[in-house]
Write a structure and sequence with these properties.
single chain; alpha+beta; 7-stranded antiparallel beta sheet; 10 helices; 15% strand
Length: 370
């Protein structure tokens, strides 16, 4: 079958996006609305609704919240490997916004069961629909062929509802980047988001220790420069987030190959990172793990290293996004500039509230609880 005889369809069946999203050349749109739009190829308009009915909700009914993702210039045309990577990056950004924001809100509310959700909700599905009404379904390097209308894919039971309103604020910052093609300024950011996304899968093959290493790798992408050690990254974490309002702790640094033993002061956030990265090294090098593996110093009793890592990654990614958007300030309209100003204020408030909830922020710097 030639490429001209088939359409390539990428869907996010479980994400429940309640509005279209655009990331440069990529667009996410409700499947029903797309099938009725001018962007839908004429030859597919009658077939797509039946194809989208392949996705079933928890009750076995046709899911009505399926999103289709496509390159705006040529909707549903077979994609290059580079275009596929760009779509995957966009999905990682959406998933990051949802998972990270839910985690922050859960800590602020001290509600353990409020987050974080699984990234499985943002699983991409790739199918080909040919001119003979067959669906070609790719799975693990193999292909299965189904008659249109015969394929049924059921929503995993562990997935929760779609994006929250506050998550869209972070999604907007990704949208403003115009393009998700990695550059020298954004490559580490996208790597960090990808590792964060992968660390939140519910796949039974991925252990909790593996997820901690993935989160540590995400933080390395944001903090490391060359062969940075954990102390250098901890100090950089302090500087990047301007943590002058943080509670301060003294840390004993053992003698190194070229430096004497010393005591330094760092924020509780940097101190947490210091301990977290030591745990990461023990996992990676097969060393004995400490008792109370996940325990950290926090006012919220259920917050462990994994949750703290989520919050640190959220803080760094959001801060970096706002920095990048400041760089394109001259290209923004007055309305967009005002929105960016609002987002900056919202981030600062959320930052203060979540670190105050953890007990890592000095009381006089805590934002009002209202």
């Amino acid at each position: 079958m030639s490429d001209s005889d088939k359409f390539e369809i990428w869907t996010l069946p479980w994400a429940e996006l309640d509005r279209p999203l655009s990331f440069g050349a990529i667009r996410f749109e409700n499947a029903v609305q797309f099938s009725r739009s001018g962007g839908c190829p004429e030859s597919l308009r009658a077939k797509l609704p039946e194809y989208f009915c392949s996705f079933r909700d928890a009750k076995g009914n046709a899911a009505d919240y399926v999103s289709v993702c496509f390159m705006q210039a040529q909707p549903l045309k077979p994609l290059t490997e580079e275009e596929i990577c760009t779509i995957q990056t966009a999905v990682h950004c959406i998933g990051f916004a949802d998972i990270a924001n839910r985690t922050v809100e859960a800590v602020i509310a001290n509600s353990q069961f409020q987050g974080p959700p699984s990234s499985d909700k943002y699983q991409l599905h790739r199918h080909f629909l040919d001119s003979n009404d067959f669906v070609i379904f790719h799975l693990g390097g193999m292909s299965k062929v189904y008659q249109l209308g015969k394929l049924k894919i059921h929503r995993p039971p562990h997935l929760i509802d779609g994006l929250t309103g506050s998550s869209f604020g972070l999604v907007e910052q990704f949208e403003k980047m115009r393009t998700l093609h990695p550059t020298d300024q954004t490559r580490r950011l996208f790597q960090a988001v990808q590792w964060f996304f992968l660390s939140h899968t519910n796949a039974p093959e991925v252990s909790e220790l593996s997820k901690l290493v993935m989160k540590a790798t995400s933080l390395e992408s944001l903090l490391s420069r060359g062969n940075s050690g954990k102390l250098e990254m901890a100090i950089r974490l302090d500087r990047k987030l301007s943590t002058s309002g943080m509670e301060i702790k003294s840390v004993d640094i053992p003698a190194g190959r070229h430096s004497p033993a010393r005591t330094i002061n760092m924020s509780k956030l940097a101190h947490w990172f210091f301990e977290f990265y030591d745990l990461r090294s023990r996992i990676v090098h097969g060393l004995t793990l400490p008792h109370g593996l996940g325990a950290i110093e926090s006012k919220v009793s259920w917050v462990d290293h994994s949750i703290a890592a989520d919050i640190a990654i959220w803080s760094l990614v959001t801060h970096r996004l706002l920095e990048l958007n400041q760089l394109i300030l001259r290209t923004l309209s007055e309305e967009e500039k005002q929105v960016l100003k609002v987002r900056n204020a919202e981030f600062q408030k959320q930052f203060e509230r979540v670190f105050s909830a953890l007990g890592w922020l000095q009381a006089q710097n805590a934002a009002p609880s209202s």
